[in-house]
Write a structure and sequence with these properties.
Layout lengths: L4 H8 L4 H14 L12 H4 L7 H13 L3 E4 L3 E4 L10 H11 L2 H25 L2 H16 L5 H18 L2 H4 L2 H14 L9 H16 L2 H25 L4 H6 L1 H5 L1
Antiparallel strand pairs: 1-2
Helix pairs in contact: 2-4, 2-5, 5-10, 6-8, 6-11, 6-12, 7-8, 7-11, 8-10, 11-12
Amino acid sequence: MKDDFATRVGKAGRDSLFAQVTQRLAVAIVSGALPAGALVPNEEDLRAEISASRTAYREAVRFLAGKGLIEARPRRGTRVAPRDVWHLLDPDVLRWSLASAADENFIRDLFELRALVEPGCAKIAALRRTSGQLARIEAALEGMIETPPYTEAAMRHDLAFHDALFEASGNAAIAALKDVVATTLLWSLRMQRMQPIEHFVVPLSDHRRLAEAIRRQDGETAEQLSRILVADALRATLAAFRRAGAPGRARAESREFAAE
């Protein structure tokens, strides 16, 4: 079963000690407040900010070690791991990084990954999709059309559209990357939510054209349209990031995103 921060918080409650300790340590690590090699604060150190029990602390440390953020070695103590061993594409690590340490280079890296994965996914989804999978894609598109842009509901329909594309590809290896795309996409959409509604006209039209290409099983057109969607999304995200006054205000606007 998938073991992630959202799942555990959902079981224990967002204000659980585990959630508080995990959030506090993770954000300190990915933001650089705790650099690589630094000793991880113990439960006594954290008590100035939160009520950290020994059990919650140990569970949080094990959880973050499993994501590559922390390493414990004999005679060295529990320390922050080097960034190159972090599980950077783990949805939790990715969400914390976007919310606390995003910069333009990191944003470009993520969208380059999307540009490598999504167009090919769209192409084979067009060729392989079933009628049921097409229905999911079209239902998500209809939700995007009927819902006011940049609302939480609209974002969920957008996520459902892309999730349905990954499912329709019929490729388990590609589908394994869908959480990376979903996390990046949701953060990107939330960065853009202060935009005028008319800015959503073009991407909505491209989503509609992509769904039509998949309906026709036109793989080449689907691939091209997906490439356009990703490129346009990168431009819109960087523009929103800059308007937010990166990194300060952009990070402030992402605080809730980190805790989800």
